[in-house]
Write a structure and sequence with these properties.
Blueprint lengths: L5 H11 L6 E5 L5 H10 L3 E5 L3 H8 L4 E2 L3 H5 L4 E4 L4 H9 L4 H4 L5 E4 L6 H13 L2 E4 L2 E2 L1 H7 L2 E6 L2 H14 E8 L3 H29 L4 H9 L6 H4 L23 H17 L5 H18 L7 H11 L1
Parallel strand pairs: 1-2, 1-4, 2-3, 4-5, 5-6, 8-9
Antiparallel strand pairs: 7-8
Helix pairs in contact: 2-8, 5-7, 10-13, 10-14, 10-15, 13-14
Length: about 325
Amino acid sequence: MAARSFTTRYLLTRTYSSKADKNVAFLGLGNMGGYMAANLVKKGFNVRGYDPSKEALTAAAKDGITGANSIAAAVDGADAVVSILPSNKVVLEAYLGKDGVVAHAPKGTLLIDSSTVDPNVPKEIFPVAIKKGVGFIDAPVSGGVMGAQNATLAFMAGGRKEDFDRSLPMLQAMGAKQFHCGEIGAGQVAKLTNNMLMGITGMATAECMNMGIKMGLDPKVLLDVLNNSSARSWSTEVYCPVPGLVATAPSSRNYDGGFKNELMVKDLELASGMALGIRSPIPLGAVATQLYRIVQSRGYGQKDFSFVFQLLKEEADKK
């Protein structure tokens, strides 16, 4: 017997469980989105995905995700739309463009954008979505590729409380923690604040570990000291920038498969712009932004941001 179409499954779901959002359109099937969509499938959601990359669609199909050749096709018959996209421009075009989500999503659909963008982006989308009769929340994530793969992401959401509550079954399928941070755009404020601190602590960890190792300390001993002292942090326990000390950290995988340095630069620039708008001093954030920009200028934008350790090590070796 042939498999039921996405639209047919939508109608059957609506008939027998009008309160359940089971048919999800997923936009953006890259390093993060591919795993997130796969975890929705594992939890029983019917997922139709769209990505401009044919390779991403092929990989997603292996995880039970039905491919679509356009955004309009992806959102046809959907109860909810989840997206994780790379930039302000791409998000705005995906949602507000002529062939975008808002123009084609069925009335009553819930839209969940997990991209990291300027807080003004969801504020621009929200009123248009509401006028069209669809819900919208911004729900960026923290946890990186490992968090996406293991469904341990933290979601920081902004928007109407009723929309956030409705999103919970999907967010819980993809992550371990879900926070309602306030009105639309508040999720982005929380995410950019988090990522600036992550960039600063990552930079500081790399700097201090490089110093201790250069002074002759055994790297394993040094890390053990840090993880059992007041300097302990996520950057020392989970995301150590020194290769070979934490097996699951990107540094132990040639700095591949993590949070790309170019994305860290993007997020720090967004956070810096946000801080400038409210005249909030960010001296450490400014230094971190410049340091990760240097990493990118050296050609390592595709490497995990913890590659900054190698930059500092290289500079120390020159002396």
